[in-house]
């Protein structure tokens, strides 16, 4: 689906029908790549809501530098795994939207420095807050648990603990296992 997502993210104003090529059968889009298209998705889906997960910018930047923007997952990695180029095209389109520039944060240094990432993250959060109508936006901290999330979505609170996933150490281990597999092929 990387090629379809790249085309949608690079499109001027995708229609709902175009979004359905990647979203058909789903009720929600979580994290990237859908997160960077929040404004286009709000336009295509007028009843949609946006949940902006907020966290401390320094820890976010550190996590990103150690995981999704580490050398093994940057745009150059397609050379080692040529069949991965469609995913890399999607990632390039996501970075352009997230960093709000033409080269995905490369020339500004935002892609490669912790300070640049922190500033980009703060600017991103502000853009979302400035553009999403307040009644359609939840500023959510994972530590707040189920209650605010369920209230915003109009669903009952589950009778189970709020999950903690997306651990940086686990992510790095998974990336290394994948690259060992790719390089062995």
From TrEMBL:
Q: Which residues cross the membrane?
A: none
Under the heading Pfam families, the entry gives:
Sulfotransfer_4
Q: Source organism's superkingdom?
A: Eukaryota
Which region is the signal sequence? none
**Matching InterPro entries:** P-loop_NTPase (IPR027417), Sulfotransfer_4 (IPR040632)
PANTHER family from the entry? Answer: P-LOOP CONTAINING NUCLEOSIDE TRIPHOSPHATE HYDROLASE PROTEIN (PTHR36978:SF4), P-LOOP CONTAINING NUCLEOTIDE TRIPHOSPHATE HYDROLASE (PTHR36978)
How is this protein named in the record? Nad dependent epimerase dehydratase
Species per Swiss-Prot/TrEMBL record: Tetraselmis sp. GSL018
- State the taxonomy lineage: Eukaryota, Viridiplantae, Chlorophyta, core chlorophytes, Chlorodendrophyceae
